[in-house]
Each structure stands twice: as C-alpha cells, then as structure tokens.
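Re: [ENG-882] Designed sequences occasionally contain unexpected residues at chain ends

Forwarding the minimal case from QA. Structure tokens:
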C-alpha cells in the first residue's frame, strides 16, 4: 500500500511516502501551503497513493485549537479533491525531533517522515 504523510504548515507542506511492501519511509519534498492543490492531486494520482496520513497538532495538554482547525480545514479541502481514506496522527514534537535528525532534506519533510513512521508503528501494534 502506498501511503503519503503530510506535515501541514502555514508556509510549507512537508511530504513523506512509504510503500508498506518495502517498508522504507522516504522524504517526498515540500509544497507551498498556499499553492498545493494541483501538485498534491497530481502526486497522489502519479504515485498511486492509497491512503493519506496528516499530522494533527494536538499540542501539549490539548492546546493549539487554531492549528487543529487549520489542519481539519486542509483535510476537508483535500478530501474534496481525492477519493481516498485520510487519517490523522499525533504530530506532537515532530518538528523538534526533525531538528535533531540529520539529513539533507527539509525540516518539513523530516516531520512528515516522523509522522509516517509513528503511524506505521502504531498500526503495526494494532494488528498484532
């Protein structure tokens, strides 16, 4: 199954991709948060994405209501453009973890990779 993870930000959208048959999580670039629709829909079709996972900014102690609303609005817009399952996954501390992760990709891509890795681990636990 091809899964796309999204770290939605006010400026950039970080992307990561995984084919669960291979198991490797890879960075997939970033998009401008104001001009994402055409590129993201094209990517979903070209890469035969079957599921989208979006990082949900729950915040420490449940704070961050404005960010949660922004992500929910983004997800609703995306859902109107693609007919795929969209799931949310807790992105708490993904940016801080991305800052500590070495590599030649953007912070947004690293955050998306961390979100996707967490999602895969959590779902593997559920199935065991």
């Amino acid at each position: 199954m091809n899964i796309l993870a999204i770290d939605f930000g006010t400026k950039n959208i970080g992307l990561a991709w995984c084919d669960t048959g291979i198991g490797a999580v890879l960075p997939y670039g970033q998009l401008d948060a104001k001009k994402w629709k055409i590129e993201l829909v094209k990517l979903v079709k070209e890469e035969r994405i079957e599921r989208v996972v979006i990082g949900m900014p729950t915040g420490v102690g449940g704070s961050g209501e404005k960010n949660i609303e922004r992500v929910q609005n983004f997800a609703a817009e995306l859902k109107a453009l693609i007919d795929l399952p969209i799931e949310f996954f807790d992105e708490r501390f993904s940016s801080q973890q991305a800052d500590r992760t070495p590599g030649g990709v953007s912070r947004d891509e690293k955050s998306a990779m961390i979100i996707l890795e967490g999602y895969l681990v959590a779902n593997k636990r559920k199935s065991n």
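QA comment: On inspection the terminal residues look reasonable. The beta strands are 2-8, 12-19, 25-32, 51-56, 86-90. Proposing we downgrade this to a documentation issue.
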